[in-house]
Amino acid sequence: MKPFLLSMLNGITLAALYFIVASGFTIIFGMMRVVNMAHGSLYLLGAYIGYSVADSSGSWLMGLAGAAIGTAVAGLLLHRVFLSRYQGQDLRQALITIGLSIIIADLLLAGYGGLTYQLDIPDALYGGVRLPVAGGYPIFRLALIGFAILVYLALWLLMHRTRFGMIIRAAVDDRHMLAATGINVPLFSTAVFALAASLVGIAGVIGGSALSIAPGDDVHYLLSSLVVVIVGGMGNIKGAAIGALLIGLAEQLGLAYFPTYSAIISFAIMVAVLAYRPYGLFGRPA
Amino acid sequence: MSTRTFVKLAVSLALSGAMAQAGAQETIRIGGLATLDGPFAVLGQEAFRAMELAFEEAGNEVAGKKIEWVKESSDGRPDVALTKARKLIEQDKVDILIGPVSGGEGLAVKEYAKSVPGRTFVNGFSAAQETTLVSPASNFFRFSPDGAQWQAGLGNYVYDDKGYRKVAVVSGDYSFGYTQVLGFMTEFCAKGGTVPEKIWVPNGTKDFSSAIARIPEDVDAVYVMLGGADAVNFLSQYYQTGSDTPLVAGSNTVEQTVLSTKGPFQRRLEGIPSAHMVAAGLEDDAYKSYVETYRKRFPDGLNAPSAPYYGYYVATKAVLTALEEVDGDLSGDQAKFQEALAKVKLDTAFGPVELDENRQAIANIYVTEVARDDEGVLYNRMVKKVSAVNQVLGQDRAEFTARGVPSRDFPDCP
Question: Does the residue A168 lie in any domain?
Fold first, then answer.
């Protein structure tokens, strides 16, 4: 019972991290049909910025803020300089972002080297708590669930209770009609891109505190985001949450019960979902 | 494509091929293969530092010939390493290849070496036992001990000095992991210790919490064999769960690259026993100047040179020594050079190194404990030296090989 409970808990906390990473990815896709292959690089960039800021200022929260601002600026530039001029040309945008992700990964390796980094967790969140039945469990991982719920609520409020969110949702359905009503769609696109980038930067700091920061994380989280949003349905926050939960649980239960095959379980889920629901669990045809 | 461009392309290709052939006479091309991507990125960085320094010390020349160095990066996966090795040999036409870094990669490159007998392969840091123990390639040389050798002395030490009788194993699920676990268990089980549970986790795992949950509660210690970022992730998650069962570390788990990682897990590492072909804080001059040179040449490097650095450094030194001996003569499918290489004896910062009949190193091994120096920097303090450890760990070669290669289920002593 205890190992099973622990694995479930691990799955849920990992899902929380996957959700925070994937939410930005899915918003970008929903709003402008861009498959941002540099999403993982923004994650890694955020993690490294967060580490540098936290290391020099001595404050984890400063690191979080620094990463959010830094990646928002990077996202803004990425969209303004490279992507906005190719609006609507999916393949070209995907290729540009792949190219950028390779360049960013190499620049980060040159700057930070191959060493693994870890952010110092604030003392209040360090260490473990005793849970009934499950035993000792790290506080920070429990806090991950809190972070994910916060992000979910904030995004939900933004999408459903503000004019900004209304415009995003309208853009998901029909961006030409939206432009015809006088909304400056390119400007909003850039803003959404920056918002999503800032989200993934925050995810980088959280991931770098719960786990670690190392070269190659960019590919790891890009892949997990892709699987999560493909399972959940592109462009849908609720889908990303459910997708993250499925993949997180599958990975952890897999690691506990079939360690040899744990790597393929998430892909098996992806194949199964695509076979029966080609647009993902909550997706709609584009 | 028009016929004209096609002809141009063909001609230029032919010319570049001819030029590479002509150039081969005055220069010696040495390929370096290491991991600059993936979980072992920092090991690859150290590997190339070592080669760079070794070449610089030789003045980028050997026996009057210029050394041309071609670098390639893998990501720790055997198929990638194989592709890159083929590229270095077939496209870049290197005479000698030094690498790779990780265990599975080494096996793949060794098999490939058999198909190109006219070139020489010198292992960098990869340490799977099979590579040189089972059907070795005649042109594949390894100047560093294998993963099982690295653990010599550790099993005895934790049984005798620490008093551990029951130890659970958590290890990376790949050939190097099996090799290290074998090295540890050979001594530990022979003494009478038991290993009730072995937990194998895939390389590159980020989240170890489920593996940690499977560790039995009634063990005296947990033996952990994970490298690079995996080790950092495991260690910090292990301590965050509030677990206080002591750890015994495989060679890479508390390697200098891991000790140099900044993070809260560092507070708990002191006293963890381990064993490796390198140690820190030795008292002799050869060691001191080795560290001094490293620090001066690579001010942005680690606190102290790491094990992969040592592996690649010794490999490159051996190659240069043998080339010097045959006066840079690589003719006759490198036969003379390979013969000289097999006989090379080196005096390194960590004692003498020579090869056995399978072209596998016999060298010293150090049992260490993690300690903190006066400046608060973590290092592996030597507690015991085991001299001239050979690949069969001092046992009878026929008996040792007959027992089979290490795997998930071998050895076993529950």
Answer: yes
In this model, does residue A1 exceed pLDDT 90? no
Among A35-49, A116-130, B73-87, the least confident range: A116-130
Give the nearest partner residue to A117 out of B213, B228, B262, using CB atoms: B262
Q: For B3-146+286-363, give the CATH class.
A: alpha beta
ipTM: 0.74
Q: Cβ contact (<8 Å) for B210 and A128?
A: no
Decide if pLDDT at B1 tops 50: no
Q: Can you give the pLDDT at residue A104?
A: 95
B34: part of which helix (H) or strand (E)?
A: strand B27-35
Classify residue A240: in a domain, yes or no.
Answer: no
Determine whether the interchain pair A259/B200 forms a contact, defined as Cβ–Cβ distance below 8 Å: yes
Which pLDDT tens digit goes with each residue over B335-361? 999 999 999 999 999 999 999 999 999
Strands B96-98 and B140-141 turn out to be unpaired
Instruction: Inform me whether the C-beta atom of residue B257 falls under 8 Å from chain A C-beta atoms.
Output: yes
Distance, in Å, from the CA atom of A32 to the CA atom of A21, rounded to the nearest integer, reads: 18
Q: Is B149-282+365-402 the same fold as B3-146+286-363?
A: yes
- The boundaries of the domain holding residue A117 are 20-223
Asked if residue A114 belongs to a domain, the reply is yes
Mention every residue, 6+ apart, whose C-beta is less than 8 A from residue B299: none
| Cβ partners under 8 Å of residue A175, min gap 6 | A32, A185
Chain A residues with CB under 8 Å of B256 CB are: none
Cβ-Cβ contacts under 8 Å, A215 against chain B: 37-38, 41
CB–CB contact B37 A259 (8 Å): no
Query: Is A18's pLDDT higher than 70?
Result: yes
Cβ contact, residue pair B209, A10, below 8 Å: yes
Total domains in the fold of chain A: 1
Find out whether B361 and B132 touch, Cβ atoms under 8 Å.
Answer: no
Q: What distances in angstroms separate CA A165 from CA A32, A155, A176, A257, B286, one per listed residue?
A: 14, 9, 17, 42, 67
What is the pairing mode between strands B346-348 and B351-355? antiparallel
Share of chain B above pLDDT 70, in %: 94
Q: Do A127 and B202 touch (CB under 8 A)?
A: no
What whole-number distance in Å separates Cα of residue B35 and Cα of residue B44? 4
Q: Which sequence spans correspond to the domains of chain B?
A: 3-146+286-363, 149-282+365-402
Q: β-strands B27-35, B65-74: how paired?
A: parallel
**CA pair distance B385, A45, nearest whole angstrom:** 43
A17, A102, A141, A212: best to mutate for the B interface, most B CBs within 10 A:
A212
Least confident of A228-237, B120-129, B291-300: A228-237
What span, in angstroms and rounded, lies between the C-alpha atoms of B12 and B17? 9
- Residue A14 belongs to a domain: no
Of A23, A17, A241, whose CA–CA distance to A145 is shortest? Answer: A17
Class for the domain spanning B149-282+365-402: alpha beta
CB contact under 8 A, B262 and A118: yes
The closest of B343, B163, B185, B363 to B279, measured between CA atoms, is B363
Tell me the pLDDT of chain A averaged across its residues.
89
Contact of B394 with B151, CB cutoff 8 Å: no
Burial of B172 (0-12, 13-18, 19+ CB in 10 A): buried
pTM for the whole structure:
0.80
Nearest to A109 among B41, B241, B243 (CB): B41
Residues in chain A with CB shorter than 8 Å from the CB of B213 are 2-3, 6-7, 10, 256
